[in-house]
Amino acid sequence: MQNTLSAAVLLIGNELLSGSIQDLNLSHIATRLEERGIRVRETRIVPDIEEDIVDAIDALRTRFQYVFTTGGIGPTHDDITSDSIAKAFGVPNVIQQDVFDSMKAYLDSKGAEFTPAAQRMAYAPEGAEMIYAQQSMIPGYRIGNVYVMAGVPRIMQIMLGGIIEQLDTGVAIVNKKIHANVSEGEIAAALEIIQNQHPDIDIGSYPQDKGSTLSDYRVVFMVKGTDEQDVDATCSEILDACSAGEFDAILAD
Fold first, then answer.
1. Residue 3: which pLDDT band, with cuts at 50, 70 and 90?
2. Where residue 133 falls among pLDDT bands split at 50, 70, 90?
3. Stated pTM of the model
4. What's the confidence (pLDDT) of residue 180?
5. Rg of the chain over CA atoms, in angstroms?
6. Segment 132-149 mean pLDDT
7. What span, in angstroms and rounded, lies between the C-alpha atoms of 118 and 104?
8. Which CATH superfamily is domain 5-166 in?
9. 174-251 architecture in CATH?
10. Per-residue b or e along 83-110, where b marks 16 or more CB atoms closer than 10 Å to that residue's CB
């Protein structure tokens, strides 16, 4: 797919790799970015290990226009994202006085102690720009082309909503779906021919189990591109291929 901005998503947390917590952030981030013409090209999951986070940040920020991270900015011992990103950028992880003051004022108003652990959340790499979420006293931040956000989905979504309009706009991505009662084996040869004839279009084929929330049909074809006419032509050829094999297929609204 041509002329789209690119992004990577870095999910940070031991709990994601162990399977004890299911990630709910990637789908939301990718969907919101695609609406803005920014395509997620790579996703990584790394543990709460400084070396792994630094290596991932160094690799991703040089390859993509944007990098979005989730997780690891809380008060506990395993929340080391800010320290790691500061190291990746070669700057100190320093106190953000405005954040510190607002956190202290909030906790004082609740009669709660502003513990050293809580104070860690007021730190960010030197030069970072804060990203505030209305429903959280803890901000994320941007440094360079890296956007650091909370791992809690509700808070992450608020943070992303606050920055999405600040991002560059790429060429709009047209996304259409075809639902078909055909097996992948029966349509694979035709799909390969169609894909080769439309190299700038992404054609994805996704079989559906019974009870799928996506479709009542056996397979869903997702057709994406930046040229709407090319997307439409590709969809027409897929529908024609299904019709030729006497397979029921529809273009979704």
1. low
2. confident
3. 0.88
4. 96
5. 22
6. 88
7. 9
8. MoaB/Mog-like domain (3.40.980.10)
9. 2-Layer Sandwich (3.30)
10. bbbbbbbeeebeebeebbebbeeeeeee
